[in-house]
Every structure is written in structure tokens, then in C-alpha cells.
Description:
disordered C terminus
Amino acid sequence: MPYNLLKYQKFLVWIGLLISLLFCLWLSSFFYPPQNKSITFFPNPYPEKPRDSVIYSFAFIGCNRVDMEDLNNPMATDSSTANRYVLKRIFNEVAKEKPNALFLLGDIVFGLRSTLELDRSLYHWKKHFEDPQFSRLSGSDIEVILVPGNHEQLYYRDVGVKGHFEWPLKEAQSTWIKHLGGYLPKDRDYISGKDSIEQQSTFSFVRQNTAFIVMNTDTYVAPTPDHPYGLEGQIPLEWIQDKIISYRQNSKIEHIFILGHKPYYIFDIPFTGHSGLPQGKALWETMKKIGSSPCFLLISMPICECILPPMGLTRSLPETEAVLGQQHFLVTPLLKLWPMDKFNWYPKDLIREPHTILRLRKTPL
Length: 365
């Protein structure tokens, strides 16, 4: 067959196929008339549920101080005894995330000596925080809540008591309040009556559908004949237990977060000595009795933990290294709350550069 004739026949075949396709499309219009909205021929068998918007978010971090060997290192710190490089980075990067609140849970200065040293350190720390050239949090809408740790409430002295070398520092709490009392929530519930001056850093407040109970895990306990140097690691246990029960009975409260410096669990192991919380077991039992809603959030030594009763499930995030003076740059968990959902952990949301952000998200029921 001549080449030109073969080429002509192929062309006619393609024309015929095109005419047939157009005829089929014309014929289908009688069965599927056009509508104002698009037609989905294969609907999604798993339609995505609409999500509510985030109603509240908060970050928490602690232990931003230098170690003893860096106290006189001008590259690492100054009279604040804070790790300047890391502190500035925390302030500015949390400001970029724009949570509703930031909890600074203790050990922001070195302390552990005298009220005179504590007074000087807190004065200069506050100057850094309120300097807009140093901190983008200054003047922002982010609520900042500060809680003392053992470095602000105790002093170091080895008196031969096994496992204990830090003791309650008299007037440490009043020194803390003198400089940082302005960062206590104005609408908080707090302890009144006898010794209330020593209890000012334990309080509670509500935001949206969430209650926060903040506790000073080294509340001052004066020396006694049985304890000539006082007791460390103490919390106003009964007041905190009553608050947990009260919030659980409030139908408007869906979540309860308990925050402090010293942990009860460290890597799933209960600690009740110097490194932990002596009254942690009693507090934990109260949390277990009222169900699984409360979420126990602690920072210490330096680990960020979220502990969920009754299982004792923990998620611990180890510290990462900063550059100046080989000081530790701690993780910064960020939690976001939705109004109608439950919590789940999303390890895929862990971001390790430049700081770790843990988003505790809620998924639809």
C-alpha cells in the first residue's frame, strides 16, 4: 500500500474516534444535566471533619541559668547569672510563636547562696526581660508567669545529711516577690492567712476552659528541733488537692494543668528525695482519683515532662546544647488547645532547630 494512502487512512480513523467521543459526551448531558455546583462522581468515603480554631496555647521552660564554673565568665553571663545567649533566644523565639502564655518554671538565676546575691541576680534578670532590645516579649501580649525553683528558694550547705545539701533560705520568697511579683496573674486564687507571705508563689487561675495550678515546689519551712535546717521540696499539699477537686467538679473546666519546678517522676521513676517531690505520691493519688483529665507538667534538672495519670505515662524531652560556655539550651514545649477535643502526642511535630517545640494537639473525637 502506498505510504500516502496509509497516512490518509490513519487520519480518518482518528477523526472517527474524535467524533464518537464528542457524541458520547453530548449523549451523557441528557443523563447528567449541568448544575450550578460542581459534581463529585466519586465522593470521599472519609470526609474531613471541620476543626475548631485554637482557643489557647502556652509554652513552658525552666533552668535557664549558668553553672558555678561560669559565674565569672563574661562570655556566658553577667550579674543576672542567667545564660544570656540562651535567655535572649528563648524570649525572642517564643515571641515568634505567639502563644497566649509563657511559664518560666524556676532556676532562672543561680542563687543558692544568700538573699543579697539573690536580690542582685533577680534585679538584673528583670532588667534583661524588660529591655525591648534584649527581649521581644517585652511589651507583647504574651502573658508571662514566673515560678521559683530550688536555686531561688534554697541555699547550699553540706551538713552531713545523706542526699540533702540544699536548705530553705529565709526571706527568699519575699525577695522573689519584690522583683517578680508583678508577673503573678491578677485574677489568681492564692493562699491566705497564716504564713501566706511564704505561699505567694503557689496559686491557680483559669483561662478559657483550662485551669492552671502553679506550685512552688520549695516552699519555705522553718527549722524545727526535728529538722534543724528546715525542709526542702515542700508544697502546700492540701490546698493544691482541694483546688484539683474543685476544678474537676466545675463543668466549665475541661483540662487541669499542674505546673512546678521539681518533678515527681523522672523517666518514669518516682523521686521523693532532693531531686524530686517528697509529697508527690499524695498529689499523684489525688490526680488519679478524679480521672485522666489533669496533666502534670514539670521542668527540672533539666527535663520537660508531661505526666498523665493514672498510667504514669511520661514524655521526657532531653536538653540540647547551646554554644556559649557549653551551657545547656533547654527544650521549649508549646501546647495548643482546641475547645471540643482530646489530647494526643504528635512526635512528628518535634522540631529540634533552633529549639524544640512540642505541640500537644487535640484530634477530633
